[in-house]
Design brief:
Elements lengths: L1 H15 L2 H10 L7 H21 L2 H23 L2
Helix pairs in contact: 1-4, 2-4, 3-4
């Protein structure tokens, strides 16, 4: 049980870390300083973490990586839109 709580806290913190970036890009309509390569590779890594979480039935991993993947995809879409 304690490991699940720690996983939820870790997942929450690492996931919400991307929220300020999403908000900033959306407000400024500028993502020119972000690396598309970095965010693309990172999104692939998050996708594999999500698959892993599903395979091992670990809710903290599934939830955190699902939300993180959505935020990262939003950043990539805005990066392409606001070139």
């Amino acid at each position: 049980m304690a490991h699940t709580i720690i996983g939820i806290i870790a997942g929450t913190l690492t996931t919400i870390a991307f929220l300020p970036q999403v908000i900033k890009i959306y407000r400024m309509k500028d993502a020119s300083e972000l690396s598309l390569t970095t965010f693309s590779i990172f999104s692939l890594g998050v996708l594999f973490w999500l698959i892993y979480g599903i395979l091992v039935h670990e809710l903290p991993i599934i939830l955190a990586n699902s939300i993180t993947l959505i935020l990262i995809i939003a950043i990539i879409v805005m990066k392409l839109k606001y070139r």
